[in-house]
Amino acid sequence: MFGKLFGGSKKEDREKPAKPRSGTGNGQEAALLSAIEEKRKTDPLVGAKIAGKEVLNRLLAAMKNEKGVHVESLFCALGALAGYACQANLREQAIARGMNPDSPFQVATTKDGKRYYFGDPLNGSLAEGKLSVWSLAAGAAQHNGAKSLPDINEIFQRTASNIGSDKFGVPNSIEGHTAGDLPIAYLRALWPALLPVVKKLSGDPVLWPVAYGFAIQAAMDMAKASIQPHISLGIVMEAAIPMSKVELASL
């Protein structure tokens, strides 16, 4: 099944961003939300888990062609979305408290006027703690047999050093494992389409990046026969770290 679902790495197989399918009907949606709210009493992560499944299902449907799903493109898209969710959830929390949405961050502005976001709260959601994107993704990679993990400190340092240059957001890829487009292209195309469902199902904005982390875990479980888990993890983090820094509204 998975061999057919996930396509190869040939250039012609690479998947460009596509619009995910629309959601369920109002009656089904209301029933689902009610069930999530009840289950949340015993499992506070249930909304994020269901959101993660929905995100992955929508991406698989949107990115599938006659040859399957280009697996590197899927992981690049998921990484980009997960990284930006780390920033977006902090913005949402700040707004809810009546604060400036930039207040959780240290902001760097380049000569061309673009703004990039840094700071401990952002890094915490991205790479620290058991529910960070890194922890969830790396845990899934190890569970699926990864013997080595990418050096995320190097990716963080490279990302910071590339701010304001054409190299920013361009992943270091392993030969034969290149996504169909850059992380920013997936982020632009997919974030607006997927935010409503993640927001509705997850509930608490803190769980937005967690939902994408669960989607990454499920994708790694499904794709382990098609791509080595340490490679898929590298693709995820090469997208997630720079996309956590960007100002999406200006792109």
Describe the structure in your own words.
The chain is mainly alpha-helical and 251 residues long. It has one domain (54-250). It has ten helices and four strands, in the order H-E-H-H-E-H-E-E-H-H-H-H-H-H. The strands form two sheets. The chain has a two-stranded parallel sheet with strand order 1-2. Strand 3 (106-109) and strand 4 (115-118) form a beta hairpin. The termini are far apart. The relative contact order is 0.23. The model has no long low-confidence stretch (mean pLDDT 88).
Broad shape = globular
Per DSSP E runs of 2 or more residues, the count of β-strands stands at 4
| Largest sheet, strands/sense/barrel | 2 strands, parallel
Low-confidence stretches: none
The strands making up the biggest β-sheet line up spatially as 1-2
Number of helices: 10
Helix fraction by DSSP (H/I, runs of at least 4): 55-70%
Structural class by helix and strand composition: mainly alpha
SSE ordering: HEHHEHEEHHHHHH
Mean pLDDT: 88
> What is the rounded distance between the termini?
38 Å
**How many domains is the backbone divided into?**
1
Strand content bin = under 5%
Topology:
Elements: H1 2-5, E1 6-7, H2 26-39, H3 46-63, E2 69-70, H4 71-96, E3 106-109, E4 115-118, H5 120-127, H6 133-143, H7 152-161, H8 183-202, H9 208-223, H10 229-243
Parallel strand pairs: 1-2
Antiparallel strand pairs: 3-4
Helix pairs in contact: 3-8, 3-9, 4-5, 4-8, 4-9, 4-10, 6-9, 6-10, 7-10
